[in-house]
């Protein structure tokens, strides 16, 4: 039995004062006086489960920040962790996956090693992910700003031909301007004449991942995990229309509401706008507000 608890329950059975008993047994008196107050966590449990249900990739640290940012609650992350263990919930962790390389028409060096990306529109990155539906395969391309993690554009196609993806690239450059560096893998779309020529036309430096080096493009790979496990898989899409609606909804949520730990728990688009406004003036805010509805079109 705990000594402090024993003294608390039996000190009246002895002639020695409580102070003397504590001194002889080497117990701090505050430990004897302490009474644990029961805490009602039912409301917080419901709120934690609701936040996790909306985005099941969230762990206890991110949920803690959601509670502080969107619900005005001052709560410790350890308490949130205990509640998640009690509810038997946790952030979804993806299974290991490996990508296959194809022979490229062009090959360029990787330019991002040891590069400090300190502003928006310095580096963009893109990739294509496969989305399996009951009636066939669809392909999603997204363009991400590496500094802010904002998704600047995307397209969904039933084909791996470069035309649809090239059109998405052109729209992003037209809307947001050209980045200094554009990073991709060595996929056939990104090493095609049409894609390379479009980048060269805007004097964009071309960077490509090394063979088998998925970590070289970790920003877009991390986004694939997020949109699949928190959006597409959770929505249970079965048709192309459902897929497009799911992607549109999630990218809007990701850009405008989902907090990002690498930017002190701010949203990607807030960070992007702040950086671009600082470097390009207030006109960009007007352009963004005009085009915000087209971002997920």
Give the SSE layout.
Elements: H1 3-10, H2 18-25, H3 29-33, H4 42-54, H5 60-71, H6 77-87, E1 123-133, E2 136-145, E3 151-157, H7 162-176, E4 181-184, H8 193-201, E5 205-208, H9 218-235, H10 240-256, H11 268-280, H12 283-291
Parallel strand pairs: 1-4, 4-5
Antiparallel strand pairs: 1-2, 2-3
Helix pairs in contact: 4-6, 5-6, 9-10, 11-12
Would you mind describing this structure in some detail?
With 297 residues, this protein is of the alpha/beta class. It folds into three domains: 3-33, no CATH class; 42-87; 123-294, 2-Layer Sandwich (Nucleotidyltransferase, domain 5), CATH 3.30.420.10. It has helices spanning 3-10, 18-25, 29-33, 42-54, 60-71, 77-87, 162-176, 193-201, 218-235, 240-256, 268-280, 283-291; strands spanning 123-133, 136-145, 151-157, 181-184, 205-208. Strands 3-2-1-4-5 form a five-stranded mixed β-sheet, with helices on both faces. A hairpin with a 2-residue loop joins strand 1 and strand 2 (136-145). 28% of the residues are buried.
Mean pLDDT: 85
**SS elements, strand count:** 5
- Encode the helix/strand succession as letters: HHHHHHEEEHEHEHHHH
Could you estimate the helical fraction of the residues in percent? 40-55%
Proper CATH architecture of the largest domain: 2-Layer Sandwich
Number of individual domains: 3
Outline type: elongated
Our estimate of the beta-strand percent is 5-15%
- In the predicted model, the low-confidence regions spanning at least 5 consecutive residues are 282-290, 292-297
Query: Termini, distance in Å?
Result: 66 Å
Strand order of the largest sheet: 3-2-1-4-5
């Amino acid at each position: 039995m705990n000594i402090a608890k024993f003294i608390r329950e039996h000190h009246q059975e002895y002639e020695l004062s409580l102070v003397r008993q504590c001194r002889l047994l080497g117990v701090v008196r505050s430990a004897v006086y302490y009474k644990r107050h029961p805490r009602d966590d039912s409301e917080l449990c419901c709120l934690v489960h609701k936040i996790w249900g909306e985005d099941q990739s969230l762990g206890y640290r991110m949920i803690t920040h959601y509670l502080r940012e969107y619900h005005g609650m001052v709560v410790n992350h350890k308490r949130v962790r205990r509640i998640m263990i009690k509810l038997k919930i946790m952030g979804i962790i993806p299974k290991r996956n490996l990508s296959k390389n194809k022979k490229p028409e062009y090959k360029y060096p990787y330019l991002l090693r040891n590069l400090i990306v300190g502003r928006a529109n310095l580096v963009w990155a893109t990739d294509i992910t496969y989305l399996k539906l009951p009636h066939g395969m669809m392909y999603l391309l997204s363009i991400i700003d590496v500094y802010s993690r904002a998704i600047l554009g995307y397209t969904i196609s039933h084909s791996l031909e470069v035309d649809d993806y090239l059109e998405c690239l052109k729209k992003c450059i037209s809307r947001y301007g050209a980045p200094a560096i554009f990073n991709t893998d060595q996929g056939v779309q990104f090493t095609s004449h049409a894609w390379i020529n479009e980048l060269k036309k805007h004097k964009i430096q071309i960077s490509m991942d090394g063979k088998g080096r998925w970590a070289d493009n970790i920003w877009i790979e991390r986004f694939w995990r997020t949109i699949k496990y928190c959006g597409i898989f959770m929505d249970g899409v079965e048709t192309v229309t459902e897929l497009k609606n799911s992607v549109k909804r999630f990218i809007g949520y990701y850009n405008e509401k989902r907090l990002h730990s690498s930017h002190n728990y701010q949203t990607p688009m807030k960070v992007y706008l702040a950086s671009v406004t600082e470097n390009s003036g207030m006109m960009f805010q007007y352009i963004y507000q005009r085009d915000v509805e087209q971002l997920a079109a």
